[in-house]
Amino acid sequence: MINVLIVDDSAVVRKILSQELSKFPDINVVGTAVDPYVAREKIVQLRPDVITLDIEMPRMDGLSFLAKLMKHFPMPVVVLSSLAKDKSEAALKALQLGAIEVLGKPGSSFSTQNISQRLAEAIRTAAKANIRRGTVHTKTTLYDSNGLSDLQTTYQVVAIGASTGGTKALENVLAPLPPSFPGTVIVQHMPEHFTRTFAQHLNESCQINVREAEDGDSIAPGLALIAPGNRHMVIERSGGTYKVKLKDGPRVHYQRPAVDVLFQSVAEQAGRNVVGVILTGMGADGAKGMKAMHDRGAYNIAQNEESCVVFGMPKEAIKAGGVDEIVPLDDIPNAMIQALSKKKV
């Protein structure tokens, strides 16, 4: 049984969430709080396993409370907020502060029926998460990139998949990479509008360029393209280079974009010219696609359990037989460079 505390200034939202979550036999709403000050007392009193947190509240906003909570009493938090474009900065900040997931509130982008199942899944994920992992360690020293100097990096592709905990993990992976690093395509499970803000944040902290992918973008050295929220991303060969294509279609593993959709296309289009990476995340998205890449000659790397916030996606990829190397998060940039240096095409 997962004990949950709901923190929201709206009586209507508190009632809806309590009613919806009560439908799940493994979730128990132990209490509600109208603001962070009441929440602080109830956390001490009720000791919930997970809290749901609104961002906009009186007396103290949700981000300020989240920062204090993670500093003094770290625990799994699922943030509920409007998913409007102008709220994406706050939502991304919540993830950076340590929130496990950000979901839309009932009455905003999602109906009550849509949010209840997704919220239950997020609560289950949060309850299993290691919230002390995921700190960003952006190293000031460059990784050894000598191995890239004689590569025709135009023909190389790096494909990365991530979910829960991935916002921090991706910063760890991308920030140290040299400007000559091969073209990179990324799926991070994230709602619509958030991916553009996330890409802009990464671009400010990386030596390579990072941006949200647009349909028809070329995959080029020194550029990382992040799949937009709510669109699948695939790659297509175009002469001696590759381009990305964005598309709709059904969710895969309840996700759009899905890692498996990207990885399957990378396997078909790029074959042995690929280095694949699977990072922290809940579920099995990416496992089949990574096995397909491996079978076509790709070299695949999985984040190890000790450094994952949630060791779901890497674990499933390892079980499927698609992983060549398992390494700690901070060692992944160098592992990618070493793998690329051996894959001269």
Can you characterise this structure?
With 345 residues, the chain is of the alpha/beta class. The chain folds into 2 domains: 2-128, Rossmann fold; 146-341, Methylesterase CheB, C-terminal domain (Rossmann fold, 3-Layer(aba) Sandwich), CATH 3.40.50.180. Helices cover 34% and strands 22% of the residues. The protein has a 7-stranded parallel beta sheet with strand order 8-10-7-6-13-14-15, with helices on both faces. Strands 2-1-3-4-5 form a 5-stranded parallel beta sheet, with helices on both faces. Strand 11 (232-238) and strand 12 form a beta hairpin. The longest helix has 17 residues, at 112-128. The model has no long low-confidence stretch (mean pLDDT 90).
Give the strand line-up of the largest sheet. 8-10-7-6-13-14-15
Tell me how many strands there are.
Answer: 15
CATH class of the largest domain: Alpha Beta
Structural class: alpha/beta
CATH T-level topology of the largest domain:
Rossmann fold
Number of helical segments with 4 or more residues: 11
Radius of gyration: 20 Å
List the domain count as a whole number.
2
Give a quick precis of the structure.
The chain is of the alpha/beta class. It has helices at residues 11-21, 36-46, 62-72, 88-97, 112-128, 166-174, 194-205, 259-270, 287-295, 313-319, 332-341; strands spanning 2-7, 27-33, 50-54, 77-81, 101-104, 157-162, 183-188, 209-212, 218-219, 223-226, 232-238, 241-247, 274-278, 299-303, 325-327. The chain is built from eleven helices and 15 strands.
